[in-house]
Specification:
286 residues; 434 Repressor (Amino-terminal Domain); alpha+beta; DNA binding; four-stranded antiparallel beta sheet; Immunoglobulin-like; transmembrane helix; Transcriptional regulator in cluster with unspecified monosaccharide ABC transporter; transmembrane; six-stranded mixed beta sheet; 7 helices; 10 strands
């Protein structure tokens, strides 16, 4: 066990915290916390994450992480040469606006055609009116035929059941509205941003890496959902099936390099923290 690991472990025991309690506080997996105490840094994903995890461990047990790193810097592994993307200074919500304009030339071509069509319809309507009036006048001037001459009465044939069924118009049936999927921001606390998801069955979370970043995803029972917790490289993608999951926690080491989408809906980062947790609580609409 290293001197730094011994110092951290003693502080944890002094606060009466188990590794499981520390895992809940820091969101760092228990095996990495044990590796820090044992001085086994080779199991970590990289030197950057060794320093980051030690700082989080120290803060959770009431110690100054920067002072510990400076004091025991000989125990630290060499720094990684990983090119990181520059974090954006501000965050703006993405919005798209589409403005459709029609040129004056287009209106100039359409208006004459509309006027011509209107006059044609007007002429046809007037012609039909005079034709109908003339027809009604001729009918009124015809002599009445002899009252003794009439049209023989024919008893109507009763319609068959099939014909009766065909004459009944089917009443339209109102279809029930399909449930919509809704992703809502619940709260932001420290490094953790919590969302709620209400939607249809088969929810899926897609993780896409634009650059190197540590990524781990666990369910409500701390079971890993990704193929393995690791540093994802640019171009890598993971799709998680959350059909049997009530809660998913995604731990991200370099948020600017990771894009999260839930059934095609983009999940925004609400705070400019390099390392942070995205928690999604799922509720399926039947």
């Amino acid at each position: 066990m290293s001197e730094l690991g011994t110092r951290l472990k003693q502080a944890r025991i002094a606060k009466d915290l188990s590794l499981e309690d520390l895992q809940d506080l820091t969101k760092i997996q228990k095996r990495y916390l044990a590796g820090i105490e044992d001085g086994n840094h080779s199991m970590m994903p990289g030197a950057f994450y060794v320093r980051a995890f030690i700082k989080q461990y120290a803060a959770a047990v009431g110690l100054n992480g920067e002072e510990l790193l400076n004091q025991f810097k000989t125990e630290m592994p060499a720094s990684d040469t990983v090119e990181k993307k520059q974090m954006p200074e501000t965050f703006t919500s993405r919005s798209r606006s589409v403005t459709r304009t029609a040129s004056n030339d287009t209106y100039a071509e359409i208006i004459p055609k509309v006027l011509v069509a209107f006059f044609i319809v007007l002429i046809l309507a007037v012609s039909w009116y005079f034709y109908s009036a003339s027809t009604n006048r001729d009918t009124a001037n015809r002599p009445v035929e002899d009252e003794g001459v009439g049209v023989p009465y024919e008893e109507p044939v009763p319609a068959t059941p099939k014909e009766t069924e065909e004459t009944v118009a089917e009443e339209p049936v109102d279809k029930p509205a399909e449930p919509r999927s809704v992703l809502s921001l619940k709260e932001t606390k420290g490094e953790t941003t919590t969302y709620t998801w209400q939607g249809t069955a088969n929810p899926q979370l897609e993780i896409v890496a634009d650059g190197p970043s540590w990524v781990a995803a666990t369910d409500q029972n701390q079971q890993e959902l990704t193929s393995k917790a690791r540093v994802m490289q640019a171009g890598e993608k993971e799709t998680l099936d959350l059909d049997e999951v009530d809660r998913v926690n995604v731990r991200i080491g370099e948020y600017a390099n990771i894009t999260l989408t839930m059934n095609g809906e983009n999940i925004e980062y609400t705070q400019p923290l390099q390392t942070q947790n995205i928690v999604i609580q799922l509720t399926n609409v039947e």
